[in-house]
Amino acid sequence: MTHRSIPASLLVKSAMRGRCPRCGVGALFIGYLRVVPVCAVCGLSFTNFATDDGPVSFVILPLCFLTAGGSLVLEVMMQPPMWVHVLVWPTLIALAVGFSLRPVKAAMIAIQYRNRERNEKAFEASAPIENTE
Ligand SMILES: [Zn+2]
After folding, report:
1. 46 and 38 Cβ atoms separated by less than 8 Å
2. Which residues of 10-35 are buried (b: 16+ CB within 10 A; e: fewer)?
3. Cα–Cα distance between 112 and 124 in angstroms, integer?
4. Which pLDDT tens digit goes with each residue over 43-82?
C-alpha cells in the first residue's frame, strides 16, 4: 500500500473514531488512551508507534491560550463573581481535554503510519540493485 492509496479522509475518519489507520475497522485503543499492541482485523502492529507526550502538548497548549484569553475577556466584559471562573474554566478544560485527547493521539498514530509507509516505499525504490555477476 503506497501513501497515495491511503486517502487523508480515511486517516481523519479512523482517527476520529479511534480505529486502525490501515484498515479503519479494528479498534486502536483499549480503554481510554492505551493503544492495542496489534490490530485485531488487519494485524498491523502498533508497538513501534510512539506518541509519548505529543497529544497532550497539542491539546493543552492551545487550550491554555483559549482559556486564559477567555477568562480575561469574561472578566473584563462582565466581571462575574469569582465562583463563576472557578466553576466554568476547570469544567471547560476537563471536557475539552477529555473529548480531544483520544482523537489527537489516534491522529498522531495515523500520521506516523502514513509517513512510515511513504518512507518505506521511498527506501525500497532507492535501494541498490544487487550485483548478480
Ligand atoms: Zn487494522
Report:
1. yes
2. bbeebbeebbbbbebebebbeeeeeb
3. 18
4. 999 998 988 899 999 999 999 999 999 999 999 999 999 9
- The Å distance, Cα 44 to ligand 1 centre, comes to 6
The C-alpha cell that represents 73 in the structure block: 475577556
pLDDT of 87 over the 50 cut: yes
pLDDT tier at 5, thresholds 50, 70, 90? low
Could you tell me the distance, in angstroms and rounded to a whole number, from the CA of residue 45 to the centre of ligand 1?
A: 9
- Between vectors from CA 43 to CA 39 and to CA 44, what angle results, nearest 5°? 75
Q: How far away, in angstroms, is 22 Cα from ligand 1 center?
A: 5
Which residues, 6+ apart, have CB-to-CB distance to 109 below 8 Å? 15, 21, 28, 35, 46, 49, 51
Express each pLDDT in 94-129 by its tens digit: 999 999 999 999 999 999 998 888 777 776 676 665
